[in-house]
Give the backbone structure.
Amino acid sequence: MTRIPLRPLARVIYARATGENPNHVEKAARARRDRKSQKALRRQAEARLILLCLCFFLAFVTVGGRMALLATSKPEEPTSAASHSTLVTARAEIHDRNGNVLATNLLTRALYARPLEMIEPERAASELVAIFPDLDEEKLTKDFTSGKRKFIWLKSTMSPEQRQAVHDIGEPGLEFGRREMRLYPNGSVASHILGGARYGSQAVTSAEIIGVAGVERMFNDMLGDPSLGGAPLELSLDLSVQATLERVLEGGMNVMGAKGAAATLMDVKTGEIIALASLPDFDPNSRPAPPQDGEAAYNPLFNRAAQGLYEFGSSLKIFTAGLALERGIANRGTMIDTVGPWEVADAEIKDFDDYGPELSVEDIIIKSSNIGSGRLALMAGKPAQQQMLENLGLKDVSGLELPEASRAKPLWPGNWKDLETVTISYGHGMSVTQVHLAAAYATIGNGGKQVTPTLLKLEQEPIGQRQVYSEETTAELLEMLRGVVISPEGTAGLADVPGYGVSGKTGSAEKIKKTGGYEDDKLITTFASIFPYDDPQYVLVVSMDEPEIKTAGEAHRTAGWTAAPVASEIIIRVAPMLGLRPKEQAETSPQLLLTSQ
Amino acid sequence: MMRGVFFLLGCSVLTVLAYWAYSENYKTQAEIERVEALRYEIADRREAIAILTAEWAYLNRPDRLRRLAEMNFETLKLIPMTADHFGTLDELPTYSPPEPKFPEAQWVNEPPTAPRVKVGGQYP
């Protein structure tokens, strides 16, 4: 840069020659120089500003870019954070009251195919069919070679051996997905309570398990809720008792050629179901498809104990007796007219046998007189009878935690007149489930408190239940029920178990014809019992569908010959498992022995 | 002169800090990998526990135990529990005096290590 002097000699001389002030030359030059340096300074400041802007711009671009990356990337668990999760399996286990496993999960693999990645699709298809015979080779080959399908599910579960065999095919287009499988290690034991499960929506890495019936369905949300930390669902069942009860019941059913059988064992105080069986049953590991035809009641999936509504016949007479005692209409010894046949509203009420002109209330129960029971109910009246049945829980659904039970509302007659009052007094004209009946008997066993059946293990006895009968009444009812078993004229002599003081009532109800009216020789027989007599703990109700047993060439179908001995066998086996110590027989009340003679 | 010293000092501090940060970063990543491996191992163990629990439950299913008891009846002499199997305290044999209180009892091991309970009125 050439530096121009402030007072160039040539200009000064020229200025002097023309008579100008030479100082003006310097002033002008100085002004020029200042303008120049101002310009340079300005340019520098502008450059700095641009640089600063660029820095800010880059910083914001970095932040913005990072945000965009975070927004578009897949979420990732923070790997460095410590894991406190105890959850491995997606669905909680189901345990019995002692912690035995009733339902658990097993890790298995699902098989899927990617036909586009297959090398030898035909060979893969034929070898797959050799491993899984239920697959269709023709269809597989078509699917693998058509080129239209990119992804095909082949199997939802498989055994480790099958998995190895699929590996050995060596086909890269066959792949495995992680699967959890619901496993019921006890097979068909408690099948109707557990129900079963199936896969819901499937992904390659996991599949949702959905309960289809039983507690699996009832508590589906709870079992699949990860926030509960996989805490098992504890049922009130006792696995050993359940298995024993099912085995004895099945034996009894086979011996008597019955079409089906059901049994319910319940704690009288809490209403907890200790065991509940319905035969025929099924294996929840491979739950059969609901049948399209045939009678629903003979379907293995049908729960006869909690779902099936039946007329239980004379088993309900004890409640009529309870009504009479509670209302002060009669006492145990009051004689009731039992002359038959008795005409009520154009219908004839008959007894199984002719029991003479009159019977005491106690004998009505022991000998099971329909006429006597009907007369007692008429004396009490329809409103009192309905109120009592409702208080016993026989009007609404039982409350048992099964989807099947929540649909089984008792069938009450639409038009309840005197005839209905009479027939319902001995258990005809009104249908309830076996669980309803067990809960009503539990009321007699626990001193008169209403019982709500439950399948969940309770920590303590429920409080504040309605008092249906007074304790005095239930004590007398219990003695009558004991009389049914030990009196020579009682209908359930075969039910007695030495040391356990079984008390109970038989009921033999003719099956309802599809066309209306009753079948003559097809019975549903029931024995509802309470044991032990001196300190009632459990209620056992056993029902059989069309049983028949031949002794000395004579065929017997009534409950005393069929359901009662099966109930007795169940109590023999089950009572010691429940920790009940047998009592000496002489401890039964002397008064009762007197009546029984 | 002073400026050069500060510059050199700053550079060396920066180098040391950079090395420290670099090594810490790698150590952290190694730890994260180790934690990840441990978590996989924990998951595997839990899976194994779940399978063993399922297998235990399957092997202990009542039907199988009953069949095993029936198959091994000659050695185990297990029968279904009945009311007769309840014993009382005075039915238990005493340890002293050493000679057996019930000479007819046949002990499997001598001397008895566990008290035996009367079964069906007889000692097994």
Summary: The mean pLDDT of chain B is 81. Chain B has three helices and no strands. Residues 39 and 45 of chain B are 10 Å apart (CA to CA). Helices of chain B lie at 2-59, 62-71, 73-76.
